[in-house]
Amino acid sequence: MKTFKELNNYVIPHITKMFPWDLEERLEETSELLLIDITEAKEFNTAHIKTAINVPRGVLEAACEWDYEDTLPVLASGRDSEIVIICRSGNRSALAAHTMQLMGFNNVISLKTGLRGWFDYELPLYDENGNEVDEDEADAYFSKGPSTEQMQPTE
Predict the structure, then answer these.
(1) Residue 136 half-sphere exposure toward CB, CA atoms < 13 A
(2) What backbone torsions phi and psi does residue 92 show, to the nearest 5 degrees?
(3) Which one of 72, 98, 132, 142 has the fewest CB atoms closer than 10 angstroms to its CB?
(4) What is the DSSP secondary-structure string of 86-103?
(5) What percent of the chain has pLDDT over 70?
(6) Does pTM surpass 0.90?
């Protein structure tokens, strides 16, 4: 049995990663880059990169294939497109990028450090209404951690 951290460590050597500053540069070079934010809708509505499309992790595989209710045509037809997968910290996106590679996507990249790294690099995030997220709001969002009941018992 592998833990979440162990799964991430297992897939990291098998995927392509990109830091926020590299993504910023790449976005300046092309408008063809497809940004897929795999956070949950509530997370996406709180903070996301402006041009990102929200495809929650739970429906990603179906969104990548034709003939499903969750099919996203730009993904189902985009196995050769340059795609950057984004999550809050870079962990879920690593697993998602690996899964997409297994599904035949040839140019999928995980945003290393995720939205947290994007914010730390002082790049803008946007809310569900398209407004830039205030620094204090973003700080509060990224400062959340597990609750006491989510921590492993010490006994």
Answers:
(1) 0
(2) -65, -35
(3) 132
(4) E-SSSHHHHHHHHHHHHT
(5) 100
(6) yes
Extract the tokens encoding 90.
């870079």
Percent of the chain with pLDDT over 90: 95
Q: How far is CA 119 from each of CA 57, 84, 134, 140, rounded to the nearest angstrom?
A: 21, 17, 11, 12
The residue with tokens 């962990």 is 91
Cα 117 to Cα 23, 61, 79, 122: the distances in Å are 11, 25, 27, 9
How much of the chain is in helix, strand and coil states, percent to nearest 5? 45, 15, 45
- The overall average pLDDT reported for the chain is 96
Alpha-carbon distance 76 to 53, whole Å? 14
